[in-house]
Every structure is written in C-alpha cells, then in structure tokens.
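Section 4.2 – Deliverable D4.2 (structural model, holo form)

The reporting period included a commitment to supply a predicted holo structure for the target in complex with oxa(dethia)-CoA. Inputs used:
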Amino acid sequence: MPEVRRAGIIGLGTYAPARVLTNHDLERMVDTSDEWIRERTGIVERRIAAPDEATSDLGLEAARRALADAGLAAADIDLVIVATATPDTIFPATACLTQDRLGAKRAGAFDLAAGCSGFIYGLAVAREFVAAGSCDRVLVVGSETLSRITNWKDRSTCVLFGDGAGAAVVAPVARGGLLAARLGADGAGAGLLQLPAGGSRLPASLESVERGLHYLQMNGRDVFKFAVRVIPEATREVLAAAGRSEGELDILIPHQANVRIIEAAAKRLGLAPEQVVVNVDRYGNTSAASIPLALEEAVRDGRVSPGDLVVMVAFGAGLTWAAIAMEWTGTGKETGTEGGGRFDPDQTV
Ligand code: UT7
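Output (structure tokens):
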C-alpha cells in the first residue's frame, strides 16, 4: 500500500460583518421576543453583511487571514474549496472568485454544497488530497450570507441565521492533525431544509418570488431531532475511526445552530460544559461558517492547545452530517516555523 501523508490545519482565519442585529431589533420586525429567542435557541445577536458584501467578500477576508496565520502566500495554494449554501451566483463557483481575488494562480477551485456540514466536508476532501500527495496546501473556506435567503417576515426562521466566514489551510504535518473523518447523508430528508426556487426544478420567476420560494424553508422540529441524534453518533464513530476512546476527547466543536441541540448532544456524550465550544449566542447559525468561527475563537481563547483531541461535528441541509477527529497541532503563528503544524512535504505516516 502506498504511504499516505498526515494532514493538519496550519492556518485559520475568520471574518464577521460589522453590523450586529440583536433580538431586540428583531422584536421590531416580527412577532417575537428576546426571551423566546434566547430560551428556544440561545441566540442573542447575529451579524449581517453590508449591502455591498457578498459571500465571496466575507470568504476572501477569512482566507487572507488564514494564509497570514499559516505564513503562506496565495501562490502557495494548490486548491481552493468554498463550502457555501449562499454562493455569489449559481455559477461561476464562488471558489473561482476567491481564487482570483486572492491571487492563488496555481490553484484549482470548486464550491462544495453540503449545507451546514460543508466546512467539515471540505476539510475531509482537503485531507484526502494532501494525504494522497496530489496537493500540498488546500484552502478550505466556509462562507455564508444567509441574510440574503432569509424571509424576514417568517419568525420561525429569521431569528436563527447570521452571516460570517471562516477559512483553514490544510497541509502535511509531522504529527497529529486531521486523524479521521466521517461523512453522512440522507437525501430522504431533503425537504426538511431547502431553498425551493432558483434552480432547474423551479427556475426563478415572478410567481416564485411572489410565493416567497426564493427564501430558505425549514421544518425546525424534525431538523432538531435529527441533529440531537447524529451529533453523538457521528462523534462516537469518528473517535472510533481515529482509534481514540470517548474519554480521551478534550473539546467538542459542534455546528452552532441552537444551544439546546448542543446541550442535548453534549449530555448524551457525557461531556462537561467547558468541553463544548458555544458561540451561537453572538453569531446565530452561520451554516458552513459556524465551525471555523467556533474553532478559531476557541484557539484564540486558549481553550484548544497543541496536543488536544478535538472533534468537529456538523449537520445540515441535504440532509448531511459530518465529523472530523483532530489532534490540534497549532497554526503557523502559534508554533513558529518549526512547530508541529508546519509543512513538511516528505512526511509520511
Ligand atoms: O443548521 C441546521 C439548521 N437548523 C437547525 O438546526 C434548527 C433546528 N431547530 C430548532 O432549532 C428549533 O426547532 C427552532 C428554534 C427552529 C424552533 O424551536 P421549537 O422549540 O422547535 O419551537 P416550535 O417550532 O415547536 O414552535 C413553538 C412555538 C409555536 O407556537 P405554538 O404553535 O406553540 O403556539 C411557534 O409558532 O413557538 C412559536 N414560534 C415563535 N414564537 C416567538 C416560532 N418561532 C417563534 C419566534 N418567536 N421567533
């Protein structure tokens, strides 16, 4: 069997738009209350992109920060993957816009559609490319402007979502890194979370717009039940695939959709609150951006240190779910040029 290389995250960057939309602001827009939103979701405020900011703008800033964190230039990147449910346009891919504006001249580029699981799917793809030796540095971006597909008159969804972006550079590492990945899908649940119009099934028309079919639609209760089931399942499976026990897990970074989902899943896994990263209170559900926003914050706050065993786990439209077990190696800035996360093209496991 050919030797495979170990892949890890060597750079992280995030970007959140400046405008803050609070629950109190929403009280003035729809029939809701700060109390209901806090109690049912844990969300207090979320960020909203400026009118001239699209998904590629948010993702580009996060990508630039991730490259700086890794100590790399755009020309060092071999592949750009943008995970998003809100691309700038259906085509060309937002990843191509990112590749061009970044100046990643040598890189291939494609978008990845796995809903809120997209960033983890992207990391899993990046890991395979690096492990196989066909790429040395892959940029994975999770970027969303969900505010653009939100029906601001529908209180059952408009209180939940926010805009933001996160990016990671995946490259060979000497030890640790992305240990195992599990990807799941159940298209039978496609109708539970969808954007009905604007594709080939129901092209955009005056009628589709009048019926509000260009807005996100969700059956919240069913997605909730699905999420509480798959987070513990996928976490256990990915730990087993990595050859690690549940007791070894240091930190869980779950998709940030609803604090009640996170707490229920953490309870099933027997985790203490300090082992679970939560920032949904400040960003709402940012879909594919939620995991990198939470990971970068946890690293910055010193909650994740080199050597820690981390599981990132997400669920979303598709339906999809995905988990990655990772031994954190530290990024360029944390470890310096000789640190555990640095590029070593000859390294194999
Ligand atoms: O990234 C993946 C995507 N999404 C998710 O993960 C979301 C998963 N689902 C959820 O987080 C929850 O199901 C929600 C937060 C969406 C809803 O919470 P819930 O506890 O499942 O509420 P519900 O839909 O069962 O609604 C309870 C009540 C209803 O009133 P009645 O029928 O009991 O009189 C709703 O009309 O709450 C009402 N309601 C609201 N009230 C005030 C729904 N939305 C609101 C609101 N403000 N914004």
